[in-house]
Specification:
Number of helices: 3
Largest sheet: 9 strands, mixed
Number of strands: 9
Radius of gyration: 16 Å
Strand content: 25-35%
Shape: globular
Distance between the termini: 46 Å
Oligomer: single chain
Order of helices and strands: EEEEEHEEHEEH
Length: 146
């Protein structure tokens, strides 16, 4: 009672389109201002001068590329493309991908969310859970995203 199940492709709710992230969304996502997705479980690795390392879960925010969208979808909608927000894993036992320390090939697999193929992940903005802005992904990694 009171529970509604949605398809894996996601659903539109006002200005937001919600999707788990492992499948392509329905084209109604163009009506949204934001696409909220998960699946990737992004994190950033930190190292101190003594070699100690730790990871922090992060939010990833990226813009869709108009040319990539036009290539994939046949809709004529080209203005105000929604912004992509990839949520971090909120369970500390679920693991994740350290986006700034994994090899470029592994990082591409980490972004196995289909909608990320329509973005420039090098320009994705990275935020800690407390809202601290760390910068664009390309400035946090040693290798550019393929």
């Amino acid at each position: 009672s009171g529970i509604e199940l949605h398809p894996t492709s996601g659903f539109l709710d006002g200005s937001f389109y919600y999707s788990h992230g492992h499948t392509w969304p329905k084209e109604e996502f163009f009506k949204a201002k934001y696409i909220i997705t998960g699946h990737v479980q992004p994190q950033i690795e930190f190292r101190d001068s003594l070699g100690y390392r730790w990871t922090e879960k992060v939010w990833v925010i990226s813009r869709l590329k108009l040319q990539a969208v036009k290539k994939k979808f046949t809709v004529s909608y080209t203005e105000n493309l929604p912004e992509l927000i990839i949520m971090p894993a909120f369970n500390r036992f679920s693991g994740g991908y350290s986006l700034n320390s994994c090899e470029a090939k592994e990082r591409k697999r980490a972004f196995s969310n289909p909608i990320t193929s329509l973005t420039d992940m090098n320009k994705a903005k990275i935020y800690l859970l407390d809202g601290t802005y760390l910068g664009e992904l390309e400035n946090l990694t040693q290798q550019p995203f393929p």
